[in-house]
Amino acid sequence: MKIAIINGPNLKFIGQRETNIYGKHSLKDLRKYILANIHNVKDLELDIYQSNSEGKLIDYIEEFWINKGNGIVINAGAYTHTSIALADCLKWINIPYIEVHLSNVYARESFRHKSFIAKNAVGVICGFGIDSYVLGVEALIKKIKVRGG
Length: 149
Ligand code: DQA
Description:
Pathway: Metabolic intermediate biosynthesis; chorismate biosynthesis; chorismate from D-erythrose 4-phosphate and phosphoenolpyruvate: step 3/7. Belongs to the type-II 3-dehydroquinase family. 37% of the residues lie in helices and 17% in strands. The protein is an alpha/beta fold. It has one domain: Rossmann fold (3-Layer(aba) Sandwich), CATH 3.40.50. A five-stranded parallel beta sheet has the order 2-1-3-4-5, with helices on both faces. Strand 3 (71-75), helix 4 and strand 4 form a beta-alpha-beta unit. Helix 2 crosses helix 5 and helix 3 (54-66) runs parallel beside helix 4 (84-93). It is globular, with a radius of gyration of 14 Å. The structure holds 1,3,4-trihydroxy-5-OXO-cyclohexanecarboxylic acid (DQA).
């Protein structure tokens, strides 16, 4: 099962960026952390990607679709709240995706309450720090198994 963990702008330096909001885990820890917390899943292929560029994120998602990826966990960072282009891309590829955030965006500024990508997501998970990704992967695996993807 091929799952992409996609990270948008300003997520390269989590672990150092505003650690009171985003926690102390780095992006480099992410693979190890997810694999240590997901059990009993065979053939889990995790591809972790980060870009600060909207276009590069879309290029990556298109490639993932070409390569027949099974599911996406995406923390689109601030593009969550602004990017119709990213939302359009995630819609048409028709690969199940889960929107995640480290912080509880609903407890923050009102501009973070709007998500262009939530509508077509399987679901949204936020506020659990790095565990948002683990929960996202678990939920996605369940969804893919039900869907038979
Ligand atoms: C974030 C929340 C966004 O509002 C913010 O722009 C980010 C990180 C999160 O993981 O909590 O860059 O997606």
